[in-house]
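U., I forgot to send this yesterday:
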Amino acid sequence: MLFCLFHVLLREEDSRVFLLLNGGDVPKGRSLSVVCVAAAGEAELYTMAVSGGAPGALSLSASGSVPRVRRWVRYRTGGFLFVPDAYWRASGGSVSVTVHVKKLPPPELEEDTTAA
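Result:
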């Protein structure tokens, strides 16, 4: 079964749109990933943490660069956080997902030290 649910995340300072994708495209679990719908721009990193509802429940996390797409049509990300079906069931079908997106500083220009 292939399906993908998503939640829209809007960053206020620059109105960039991020999608938290919840895919059912992996056996025995879900794939969670983040994608930015925007033109080319600054590189960004994300961290994602998933925790269950019960105290002391296992917590899962992932991080990486945020892929960019100009439009989203069943986009498949290269990386994702695998969350087993058993984890969803143990949490009563409800988990908490926290996503942080951070802009990377622009690369520093190297100073030309050769004499002209």
